[in-house]
Amino acid sequence: MKPNVSIIILNWNGWEDTIECLESLYQIDYPNYNVIVVDNGSEDDSIEKIKEYCTGKIKVSSDFFEYDATNKPIKIVEITKKESELFSKINGKFKKLILIKNDQNYGFAEGNNIGIRFALSYLNTDYVLLLNNDTIVDRNFLSELVDIEENENNVGILGPTIFYYNDKNRIQSAGVKISWKKGIAISLKRNKIFKDESNNINDVDAVSGCCLLAKSELFKKIGFLNSKYFLYWEETEWCIRTQKLGYRIIHVPNAKIWHKVSATTNKSRGVYEFYMIRNMIWFMKEHAQNIHFLIFSIYLLIFRFWFISGSYIIHNRDYKAFFYSIKGLMYGFFED
Asked: pLDDT band for position 28 (50/70/90)?
């Protein structure tokens, strides 16, 4: 039997993206998986709409697949965050939807941690897959990831090739390389057109949290995503912790997904600017060598910060984004 995979999707006021993602998932060729949707305190009608999709009342239209009515209804196991911590053991293989309803927005890191803890405690899962709700997956993406994991040595985390949703053959990310002197997580092959590389896998510094497959044992050895990050850099930080214990981080070219790019955070101006800058500094403080952190700090304060943040005012007249950038800078250097 293939290893059991728990797929965790975080939803926050984004049910339309979520049900398109779910429909693509329920058509994959991998035989042994379960899906956990963690609703992060949505303030719209996300929960009701997701439930309607599962009953077959909402038919999903997409350029990536044909809607399949034959796999409906999808049975829902609906629980609150508190109930998820006291749940009875689930045995056996199933394709149900577990819907965990958080009482508030716990951010990307802790929102996913809630789903991860549930999977590890009650689903006897071998692997955990974190998947953004604004993605569409290829039919064999999970088979490609698991096959590499099972046949390569000392692999801890794997990621697929991520394409732009609106440009199906153009790569958004093929793994991540860290520039330690500049504090930049560089998406490899960004904007390049995909070329079939068979199973020419690549060792990388990190993979995007947009889609990340990890062995369950890692969470016991390394811990969970750092909840203080709330949003951004948390998956990169977790990958670096994994590397430090000697595990490999792998990009699998022929595992493919398509991503709409920041569909959730685009709803809240200032969120991106604050958390991206603050967490970048926190990440570098914790993991960069002292000399690299010094170079990074000089580069950030003299050039990069003012170049990026100045554009908010000069080009966009976005004073709110500039204010949150300053706030992120202050919190990054002076708060832990």
From this structure: very high
CA atoms of 306 and 39, how far apart (whole Å) = 36
CA dist., res. 188 & res. 204, Å (int): 9
Q: Beta partners for 187?
A: 176
Question: Hunting for tokens 């991106």 — which residue is that?
Answer: 272
Q: How far apart are CA 71 and CA 55, in angstroms?
A: 10
Return d(Cα 234, Cα 205) in angstroms, integer: 14
The pair of structure tokens assigned to 215 is: 């062995």
Nearest CA among 212, 320, 210, 315 for reference residue 272? 320
Compute φ and ψ for 78, nearest 5 degrees.
Answer: -110, 120
Lookup: tokens for 224: 């969970």
What's the CA angle centered on 116, arms 109 and 131, to 5 degrees? 65
Instruction: Let me know: does 6 contact 98? Beta carbons within 8 Å.
Output: no
Which of the four CATH numbers 3.40.720.10, 3.60.20.10, 3.40.50.2000, 3.90.550.60 does domain 5-266 have?
3.90.550.60
Q: Is the pTM of this model over 0.90?
A: yes
Supply 64's token pair: 């990536």
Q: pLDDT tens digits for 244-303? A: 999 999 999 999 999 997 655 554 567 888 999 999 999 999 999 999 999 999 999 988
